[in-house]
Amino acid sequence: MYWRLIMKILIHGRNIELTDSLKEYTHSKITKAIHHFKEIVKEADIHLSIQKNPRVAFQCAEVTIFANGTVIRAQEKTNNLYSSIDLVCNKLCRQLRKYKEKNKSSIDHSKTIKRSISLSDKENTDLKIDSFLKAGLKGNLPEPLIKKKYFEMLPISINEARAQLDLIDHDFYVFKDKNNNQLQVIYKRNSGGYGLIQSK
Question: Can you give the CATH number for the domain in which 91 is found?
């Protein structure tokens, strides 16, 4: 019951009427998908839309999760919105499991290192960010196809950026390198592996 009070679920619609039954179904599926990860998930932002073109109307479900300062994103498109919601919830559950396993492995490794070198002071590893989105900032959309988002961009390592890329269901990820504080782009190569775009 307490989790319901602190968990934030936002449901938005585009080119579609958000009926009570649709919102209830979406809320129920998202809640079930993230139930086992409730200790790390702070907010779920869901966008439901119908993308019309002359041949077919895709019905899209897109979910962005804010989990302990990490953004996890999943998207599915089918010709049935309820099917898209089911599929995106399944994908989201897999991504959250993957994130939690990687995070646990990283924490266990960190604890092993700390024990081996007998560190007595607690390092600042408990930094948590409730939301990347800056309050009060909204993107202006000069063109219908341009979507702007504003995020708090904390400097991270290349390995952290690669791990984040694997969680957001995109082909690239823009980040600020903690070594030089410069913006860089890591992306997935068509031939496999990753590429890195750096400024000189």
Answer: 3.30.160.100
